[in-house]
Fold this sequence. Notes:
Elements: H1 3-19, H2 27-38, H3 44-47, H4 53-65, H5 73-90
Amino acid sequence: MDSENLKGVIANVLSLTSLFPNTISNYNELVVKYWIIYDGVRTFEDVEHATPVETITRAFRKLVEIGLIKVPLSTKQKRKKQQEIYKTEFTVLI
């Protein structure tokens, strides 16, 4: 993805989180709403041509990093706990 497209994704994510604040705390909702609104996804087959999930979530994390999106403390704590669980369960596999 080139830098112009990434800038567009970042702008779209910022707009989406402003319109739908719940998307700040729910990656799944963020991605699905992004796909429907910006990529025109209507069927499972459309997902194949939609913006990659990682691109959307990276744009979100960048906006958080630069302070344009504020993640609630409860969401940060929940994500930290999920990260710890992931590390505990999957470190054994490495």
